[in-house]
Amino acid sequence: MNDTLPRVGLLPSGPRDAITDVPGVTVGHCTLAEGAIQTGVTVIRPHAGDLYHDRVPAAAAVLNGFGKSIGLMQLDELGVLETPVALTNTFGVPAVAAAQIRAALAVNPGIGRELPTVNPLVFECNDGHLNDMARMVVAEAHYRQAHDSADVAVAEGAVGAGRGMSCFGVKGGIGTASRQVEAGGRAVTVGTLVLANFGRPSQLRVGGRAIGPILAERLEAAPAVAKPEKGSIILIAATDAPLDARQLRRLALRAGAGLARTGSVFGHGSGDIALAFSTAYTLPQDPGAPMPAIAMLHESHLDPLFEAVADGIEQAILHALWRAETVTGRNGHTRQALTEVLPGILSDPAALPSRGSP
Fold first, then answer.
1. What are the residue numbers of the active site?
2. Which InterPro entries match (predicted)?
3. 55 against 349, higher pLDDT
4. Total domains in the fold of the chain
5. H-helix or E-strand containing 148?
6. For residues 180 and 63, what is the distance between their CA atoms, to the nearest angstrom?
7. Vertex 147, ends 143 and 149: CA angle to 5°?
8. Taking 50 as the threshold, does the pLDDT of residue 172 lie above it?
């Protein structure tokens, strides 16, 4: 890209500047890109083992609940992940949930019989502008492909579940980032990943600067005639800090701070959902297995993690915008890459509005 990607905040990144800087975490994509089909599946694996048997603590925060995710109710009640986290389009949720259940059954055939049921966790955004969702092409094989390809190297932009997503009127998709902090005398990593599909062009802010009016003018989408917000974003945070589910919900909630910095107002028709999980320990499914004796991070040491997740989410959204490519899909609909719509302007401070400008 000709335009320099802005760096958010002062905290250092991990070596990959990705959610996979948190030890054990991997990410995989399956991308479907042919004509009117522009969609896919993205899978986040907290560890390489059997998540049904060795669950990780987790919690979610619903900033605006216009969404069709599955698995949030039990997650809220029990505070654990039993499957990898899956992202896809709205109509792909049932197939991906079925794939998660079958994957868990393949390893634990007693599930639903002598063992408890499994709670699949699937998040979604509506990619219907570019993708013909009504054809419902996402299948179990696509989940398996994304799951089996999970690695520490994370592709960003118009890949996986992000293939058909739009953000601020341009191409959105997958973005990831990480920040490293010291908390309670220990080194801690916070990794973030977003599925960015939100925002009106006029709202966009980059590094505190109001880019939206320029972008709206270029896209001929003036604020006065802009359509209502109908997008969504899924915000994922992972950390190796020892946190319980209650603390993780507090961490998830701070993802909203990073989202707001980019210009989002959590619009009426937007599904804005944040999830946070910790890889510091696992919780056994087997009631006969001992529960871990873990010293949780003290509440007074959470502020560095809150800063890290806010910075990381903002950075991940910028990564999704900068690293997306122009995509043409259903009925010839096109979403241009941000760097093609505003070439040169994004990296030229003299061309940008001052901070706080309308």
1. 232, 270, 272
2. ArgJ-like_dom_sf, Peptidase_S58_DmpA
3. 55
4. 1
5. helix 140-148
6. 25
7. 120
8. yes
Distance CA 197, CA 168 (A): 8
Amino acid identity for residue 25 in this structure: V
CA angle in degrees (0–180, nearest 5) for 85-64-267:
125
Mean pLDDT over residues 91-112, rounded?
98
Helix, strand and coil in the chain, % to nearest 5: 30, 30, 40
Query: Is residue 74 in a domain?
Result: yes
Q: Regarding beta strands 166-167 and 170-171, do their DSSP bridges make them parallel or antiparallel, or are they unpaired?
A: antiparallel
Tell me the two tokens of residue 217.
């003018």
Q: Is 334 part of a structural domain of the chain?
A: yes
Which of helix, strand or coil describes residue 272?
strand
Q: Which amino acid is at 189?
A: T
Helix (H) or strand (E) holding 255: helix 245-261
pLDDT tens column, 46-69: 999 999 999 999 999 999 999 999
Contact 192, 312 (CB under 8 A): yes
Question: Against a cut of 0.90, is the pTM above it?
Answer: yes
pLDDT of 73 over the 60 cut: yes
How many residues are listed for the chain in this entry? 358
CATH of the domain at 339: 3.60.70.12
Distance CA 262, CA 298 (A): 30
Best CA proximity match to 180, nearest among 101, 93, 241, 90: 241
Full domain range(s) for residue 268 = 19-284+299-345
Rounded Cα–Cα distance for residues 177 and 315 (Å): 6
Residue at 93 is within a domain: yes
pLDDT digit string, tens, across residues 262-288: 999 988 888 999 999 999 999 999 999
